[in-house]
Design a protein that fits this description.
single chain, alpha/beta, 5-stranded antiparallel β-sheet
């Protein structure tokens, strides 16, 4: 660790962090090991970030990590978001309620102790774009970039890179291999990833000549990438959206749309209004959410205690205190 930190590394993401000590079913000795590592980092490299692939934020933070992911394994209902009957799809047959219940359990056990993080994906699951189109993904990223914790974006998801189905397994990748293809930068050789001969690449590129690239997305003001960049700027600008600000879920009913939550700070309250379904949706909302400061697909409208939200849209409203 010292070698890389001395070269300027900001921190470490530890794969399978809970499994380092074998025959340790309650993770007692695993936690002791990581607590020793954390003590060393706190003394010698206090600005280092220590991130675990543990899948249980309470346990991971007790072990000394600064943050942990909700993952596709375990009772997190993470897969309800983008992958298995995904909520963030215009088909409108997903359910956000069980995810919210599971998330609140993790959040309440860890708030103030470290960060409970939601990734767009990782190298062990099919990409977001496998079941979501670009319009769906814009609303999904509005969710990811307005939730507490540190948002994690798997490389290429911000430009809508596709999952390459049917690729030969590479080094035990199996069906995960299709999520590990090279980053697509521009129109040059190998999409700007490498000047090597294509046969020398670790994995082949998406062969579609219309594959998304950073170059094309930057040139399109309505692209997914430019929306992600705008949401990132918004997150940095508003204290209610920072990692430590609180959250209150306002409407997250089973198999229902829209999905509402408030991010809270002493200076402001931001209400996040998401409707990934193709149909207009409405719900009760007692208090006026304030002025719309960012929207996609049309603004939500509040009148007489009812909120009406266009299909395939999100609105972020702000009330200053």
């Amino acid at each position: 660790m010292s070698f890389w930190l001395d070269l300027g590394c900001d921190g470490f993401r530890v794969d399978m962090a809970a499994s380092l000590v074998k025959a340790d079913p309650d993770h007692h000795y695993t936690k002791l090991l990581w607590q020793k590592v954390r003590a060393f980092l706190d003394e010698k490299y206090p600005e280092t970030a220590l991130v675990s692939e543990w899948g249980d934020p309470k346990e991971a933070l007790e072990a000394g990590f600064h943050m942990d992911f909700l993952l596709h394994n375990g009772p997190t209902h993470y897969m309800d978001l983008f992958r298995e009957t995904p909520y963030f799809s215009k088909k409108g047959d997903g359910d956000i309620s069980e995810f919210v219940k599971a998330y609140l359990e993790h959040y309440n056990r860890t708030n103030g102790k470290g960060l409970c993080c939601i990734p767009s994906g990782n190298h062990d699951m099919k990409r977001m774009h496998h079941l979501l189109d670009e319009e769906d993904m814009k609303i999904a990223f509005a969710f990811l970039l307005t939730m507490p914790g540190c948002p994690f974006i798997y490389f290429g998801d911000e430009i809508g890179m596709r999952y390459m189905d049917g690729m030969p397994s590479k080094e035990g990748g199996y069906d995960r291999t299709g999520s590990r293809t090279p980053m697509q930068w521009d129109h040059s050789a190998n999409a700007g990833f490498s000047s090597a001969a294509p046969s020398k690449l670790y994995l082949s590129l998406d062969p579609d000549e219309n594959r998304p690239t950073v170059e094309k997305q930057l040139a399109d003001p309505d692209s997914l990438l430019n929306l992600v960049k705008a949401l990132t700027r918004l997150r940095s600008k508003h204290p209610a959206l920072l990692s430590g600000s609180d959250i209150r879920f306002l409407y997250a009913k089973p198999h229902a749309f829209p999905f509402l939550y408030a991010r809270l700070h002493e200076t402001e309250t931001l209400t996040i209004i998401l409707n990934p379904s193709a149909s207009e949706a409405s719900c009760p909302l007692t208090e006026n959410p304030g002025d719309a400061i960012f929207s996609y697909g049309g603004d939500a409208k509040w009148e007489n205690g009812t909120l009406t939200v266009p299909g395939c849209s999100f609105t972020i409203c702000c009330r200053k205190h």
